[in-house]
Each structure stands twice: as C-alpha cells, then as structure tokens.
C-alpha cells in the first residue's frame, strides 16, 4: 500500500515542491565583475606600521555584467584588517536592478579566492542565502569576478 504513495512524493520532491525534501531550493548563479576604482584604506594602527590589525578598507565600486562591457550595478561596503598581510573581514551590499544582495566574510590578500556568505537581500532576492566567490581577475587586483550562488 505504501508504494503507491511513494511515487507522487518522489515526483514532488524532484520538482522542489516540498522544502523539506532536501535540495529542494532553487539556485540562481549571478556572474559579475567589480572594478575596484574607489578602494581606500584608512590606516589606524601604530604609526610605524603600514599594515596593521584594525585598518579599514572602504569602497563603493561599479559592477559590470559577465562580459565586462555594461555597468549593471554598484557595490558599497567595508572591510577590517584581521590578519596582517593575509586577510580582511568584509561586509557589503550589491545593488542591481533586481534588488540588493548582502554578503559577509573573508577577503584574502595575494589574489587568493574568497568565499563569502550571502546574508540576505531585497526585492527579487528577499529570501536569498548562499555564497559568493570572489576571484581576482588580474595581478594588480583592480578587477574581481563575483559569482553569486543564490538559494531562494
């Protein structure tokens, strides 16, 4: 008798109808390119050190579509130096026409890829979670690939 009820439940789970079925959420991938034009570091540590714990990096940069031809939004945020020469802890908001996404997590020095948590969003992204991968596009670290894997 149970077998005849199993097929409709499996089909509903595969279609993502039940959130509790495991893996039922939809994931959207958003690929963008940030141009780091306004990055400013405010040194607040000891005067004899150029890089110290507590320094602040602030920015509000243009963000382009994956082909890097058209600006589609902006980001705005800040980072605090947590490990000299190694890492910052960051939080920022991406604004695009569909809404806003916020992220929080580490930004590693030296072009090392970083993964940040998507902590929320607005409008089309109002139920967003997931992760964002940041990848330096050049050695000067003036452009970054932003890959948002958004669970909604």
Task: Summarize the entry for a quick read.
With 152 residues, the protein is mainly β. It has one helix and nine strands; from the N terminus they run H-E-E-E-E-E-E-E-E-E. Helix content is 8%, strand content 53%.
Secondary structure tally: strands = 9
Q: Into which percent range does the helicity of residues fall?
A: under 10%
Alpha-carbon distance between the two ends: 35 Å
Tally the helices.
1
Q: Uncertain runs with pLDDT below 50, 5 residues or more? A: 1-22
The radius of gyration computed from the alpha-carbon positions, rounded to a whole number of angstroms, is: 20 Å
Instruction: Spell the H/E element sequence.
Output: HEEEEEEEEE
From the spread of the alpha carbons, the general shape counts as globular
Q: Main β-sheet: number of strands, strand sense, barrel status?
A: 8 strands, antiparallel, barrel
Residue-averaged pLDDT: 87
Strand order within the widest beta sheet: 1-3-4-5-6-7-8-9
Content of β-strand: over 45%
Secondary-structure-derived class: mainly beta
Polypeptide structure, described:
There is one protein chain. With 152 residues, this protein is mainly β. It contains 1 helix and 9 strands; from the N terminus they run αβββββββββ. An 8-stranded antiparallel beta barrel has the order 1-3-4-5-6-7-8-9. β6 (99-108) and β7 form a beta hairpin. The chain is globular and about 50 Å long. The model is unreliable at 1-22 (pLDDT under 50).
């Amino acid at each position: 008798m149970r077998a005849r009820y199993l097929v409709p439940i499996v089909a509903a789970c595969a279609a993502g109808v039940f959130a509790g079925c495991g893996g039922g959420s939809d994931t959207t991938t958003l690929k963008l390119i940030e141009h780091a034009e306004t990055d400013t570091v405010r040194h607040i540590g000891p005067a004899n050190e150029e890089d110290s714990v507590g320094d602040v990096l602030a920015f509000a940069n243009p963000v382009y579509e994956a082909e890097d031809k058209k600006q589609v939004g902006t980001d705005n945020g800040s980072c605090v130096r947590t490990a000299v020469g190694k890492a910052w802890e960051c939080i920022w908001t991406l604004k695009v026409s569909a809404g806003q996404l916020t992220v929080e997590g580490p930004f590693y020095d030296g072009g090392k890829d970083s993964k940040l948590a998507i902590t929320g969003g607005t409008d089309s992204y109002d139920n967003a979670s997931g992760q964002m991968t940041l990848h330096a596009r050049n050695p000067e670290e003036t452009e970054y690939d932003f890959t948002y894997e958004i669970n909604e």
